[in-house]
Every structure is written in structure tokens, then in C-alpha cells.
Amino acid sequence: MKSVDVLLSAPMMPLIMDGVAAAFTAHRPWEAKDRDAFLREVGPRIRGIAAGGGHAKIDGRFMDLFPKLEIIANFGVGYDNIDAAEAGRRKVIVTNTPDVLTDEVADLAIGLLLSTIRQLPQAERYLRAGKWLEKNFPLTTTLRGRKVGILGLGRIGKAVAQRVAAFDVPVAYHGRNKQADVPYRYYASLNEMARDVDVLIVVTPGGAGTKNLVNAEVLRNLGPNGILVNVSRGSVVDEPALIQALRDKTILSAGLDVFVDEPRVPAELIAMDHIVLLPHVGSASVHTRNAMGQLVVDNLTAWFAGKGPKTPVAETPWQRR
Prior knowledge:
It is a single chain. The chain is α/β, with parallel strands linked by helices. The chain has two domains: about 5-95 and about 285-320, 3-Layer(aba) Sandwich (Rossmann fold), CATH 3.40.50; about 100-275, NAD(P)-binding Rossmann-like Domain (Rossmann fold), CATH 3.40.50.720. Helices cover about 35% and strands about 15% of the residues. The protein has helices spanning about 15-25, 35-40, 60-65, 85-90, 100-120, 120-130, 155-165, 190-195, 215-220, 240-245, 265-270, 285-305, and strands at about 5-10, 25, 45-50, 70-75, 95, 150, 170-175, 185, 200, 225-230, 255, 275. Helix 4 links the parallel strand 4 and strand 5. Helix 1 packs parallel to helix 12 and helix 5 packs across helix 7 (about 155-165). The longest helix has 19 residues, at about 285-305. The relative contact order is 0.15.
């Protein structure tokens, strides 16, 4: 398959770059003196793109540069960086990296939930500052007696629900449709669910369809004892509304692994000591990132070997064949 030209959209983990280079003729535009001129030169030969690593949105205008494009293999389960609908109209395959990161992200969601409720980072800072010598750390709130609502019951959402249920905590969920094969209560209205739960865990995909889905009204309904945990995409939560809700004590606290303009986190959030902030580390273990990277390479090699994509996304034309 060395005759196949594949574009690496941005610097990526060595496993991906080495794997693509071993199987295909790989092109690295960030190494060119003139990136735009480089893309115009190689564009007519490119048949595949390995996407991720911080590249800007791959939209129709970007795809125009590659008239022979067949597949975009994305690093990550979320693919809001790619206009998958436009790719589908062009009969371009889009793949992502589901399943291999499900358990890692679900584990992180539970860790973030417990850290936020029991103020574990704050307690550690308290000890390190020598304050325990003066008096005990203040009592915290608890997971006991709470109800958890999950926004988005996909692969990761189900894994989170299983872990929450193991704590003997009631679980509910909101999504586009009720799922017949799950034991959790379904809410057709996010606002109604927010009124009935004490914790809202956001696991829904990003993109235009979910932008600011968790807005000021949802946060008001979550209430002054409510906790928001977001391990999906920062865009799903109205960030200014969240900041205001935390300032006004409209909700109790938040545990956030994702933000709207990463890695730039609002100073207002950083200044708040009663919330927990993480630098988007949901899938960031060596084991899981290697599995994700290998799946990017495997999707490309499977496609160009005539075996079809391994993990096509919902919008891809392969799904409709």
C-alpha cells in the first residue's frame, strides 16, 4: 500500500505517524515551509487522512483540496472536528476510535464525580499546606442519598451508569430516544431530569446538535445541591452560564475535564476552589491512547486493503450500504 498517499493532518503520537509511514506514503504538512503550497501540491494524490492532534476543523473547504479522498480516520471517539455529514455527501468514509477508550473515560468520570463530591483535591492541598496540624479538614457533602442523571447513554454513558449503579445510587438518563434494553429511568426532557436528580454527568457527543445543551435553565433545575460533571465536550455546556451558576450558588459544584476553548480555561473557573478541573485526561493513559492510535492505523489499512472500515461513524456512507 506504499502507493497510497495519506495525509497526517497534524503532529500525532509516534505510534500513528510511524504506523502510517510504514504502510503508506505519508505526508506531514507541518514540516513544509509553506503549508498551503504543500497541500495544493500533494492534495490531488491524497486518498486518506489521519486526523487529530489539534488540527482545525476538517470541513468541505478543506476536503476540496483532496479530490481523491476516500477516508478520514479520526483519533478520538468524538469527531466534531470533522464535518462528517459533508464527508458523507462526498461518499468519504469517516472513522473514530470507540470502545477502546470506553472504560478509561468511564473510570475517569467516576473519579471526577467522587473528587468533586468529597473535595479530594482540596483535601490533599489542605494536608500539603500543613493545615491538618491546625484542625481537621471540613466535612463534605456525600454521594449517599443522591440521584444521578446521565446526559447521553451511548457506550461511555452505559459504562458510567454501570459504575454509578454499583454504588447503589439511582440512575436516570436523557437522550434522543428511550432505550428498551436498559434498566434506568428515561427522561424525554433534560430539564425534567435535571429537576429530579442531584448529579448531572455529561457524556453526550459534541457538535452543533448539542451546543450549550446544558444551559442556565438546566443548571437552575439542577439546583443548589446539584453537581455537574462533564467528560464529553466543553461545547455541550454553556460555559458563561455555568460560571454564573457557580458564582451565585445556583448549583453546588462542578467537576470538569473539558472546556470550550482548550487548553485555555476561563480564569473565573480556575479561581474557584470548590470545583475540580482536569486538563482533558479522560482517555489519557498510555494503554488507552496506544489502543486508540492503533485503531486509527487499522482503519486506514483495513480500508485500503479492501476490507472496509473497522469503526465507521454514523454519518459515513458505509453504514448505508
